[in-house]
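Sample A.
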Amino acid sequence: MGKPFNYGGQAVIEGVMMRGSQSMAVAVRDPNGQIVIHDEPLNAALYRGLLGRLPFVRGLTMLWDALGLGFRGLMFSANVAVGPEEEDVSFEGPLAWGTMVVALVLGVGLFFVLPKFIAAFFERMLGSALAGLLIEGVVRLALFIGYVWAIGHMPDIRRVFAYHGAEHKTINAYEAGASMTIEGVKPFSTAHTRCGTAFLLTLVVLSIVVFAPLTGLPLAWGILARIVLIPVLAMLAYEFIRFSARHADRAWMRILVTPNLALQRLTTREPDDKMIEVAIAALDRVLAKEQNVQV
């Protein structure tokens, strides 16, 4: 592919956030049908400094920053989507960080603590630490897939997933050198190797391997160790996603990432033209800012 893979993003409420190496932009369609865009520069130390180049370390710093950007993008999209554009939108503050903390705590509890409790029951019943480890991995995977499947049936989330598809199509088209028009973007896939869904599935699979040495620990210590090792899992998953993107044209890598791409069928929907238009607007703003061009 002719373009560097510096660009990515996420779906927000009635819109798309795009992120490059120097700036981000959120494009949202307001109730009047107009596209409202917010952009801001990225932290240069994280994205273009030493921290952004150090293997494994870069995974933690960039993922943490991506969480912050994502929540600010969601807050902006919510303000725009529910009513007239606000002139003074707050992108920081207790609401953003409080929401992020609650979401992280719930995520850790659901996908790391609960599977261990369930596995511990079967481990005692079967008398096998290996069986407990495998059951924990299966339960974690089932909870993750079940959660994604369940929320995908909510009408509002289905629209978000369609914007997710628009984001992927636009990035795929840009990386392929296609024209940044609705007709130029429409033919491309709604799946992408650098998707956050792929990252999460990779993290879940890696947890089986990383948690293997913890099988002999008491339940409380085992849960604590799993929580402590979440950053390690995140670093490993991030590096794998980067590696898979660099080698996406290899046959063996296409086979390896097939489950990641298949799972995206649950988290993406085919977007309509207006959704693609929003995604293009977000990416165009990022490209313009990074090329010092006024839009």
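Sample B, a different protein:
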Amino acid sequence: MKTYIKKTIEAITEYLNDLSDNDLLNVHNEYCQSINDSDSEIFNNDEDFFNTFFNGKVMDAIRAVSFGDYRYSDDYIIFNGHANLETFNNVSDHIDISAIAEDIMENEQNYYGFELEEEEED
């Protein structure tokens, strides 16, 4: 299902601000892929994350937790710049909505489910 948004920074920013945390996280990760910055992707702090990135590498996971800032009960997880793990609960604190809005304006094709509509002139 496509979401139609006016092709303005303001309309895109408003749309992004109204998203749920899970939907905002998905758009943020699309943004990271759009700008080739997979190191900034955010993941859910769950068993799937550890199976994906540390499958069978228990000592690597322990190192990443020990040298990072990891809390088991936090909702979200990222790799810091040193391949260690950091967790947090407020996803919007780690997302630059204005940068995402600008990239959507320039690279709409990199985002699933968005279609920007040109503003009608009076």
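Observation for Sample B: The first strand starts at residue 3 and ends at 6.
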